[in-house]
User: Fold this.
Amino acid sequence: MTCTYENLIDDIAPGDRILLADGIVELAVTAEEDDRVICRVVRPGTVRSRQGVNLPGVALSTPSVTEKDREDLTWALDRHVDFVGLSFVRNSDDIRQLRELIAAHPDDHAPHIVAKIEKSEAIDDLESIIDITDAVMVARETWASKWTSRPCRSCRNGSSAWLTPTACR
Assistant:
């Protein structure tokens, strides 16, 4: 299989997990060889073209706000959308960066920001993320983890909304 994430080889190591197809398929990294990764299939399933790759517990070297995100944000701001979401939020700095990009747009319109919590680093900085964002959505894998009630309580005590993906119900 190929992957468009250029830093994959640099960011992962043997023992890391790779989730494909929204977490349905799980691979365990067993080795790295030059420009490829050798994996063992832990949980099989069907993988289709252009599905996401998730590296739980891996510190990614790519920026949270990508060039494509910037283009999409400009498109959204030009159309005065009410909400924008940022996936794979790692910490409150990611939300600050998004707010700065919104503030730099020539229009005064500022949509609400939804922080999608999918990385373990985000859980470590959750209180700060909740303080700076307008809404929080927790991914399925995180939802099933030990932190389930903590974000709910934090959102009830603050000004952020709590969004539950329908697959989590």
In short: The first helix runs from residue 8 to 11. The chain has a mean pLDDT of 84. The chain has seven helices and eight strands.
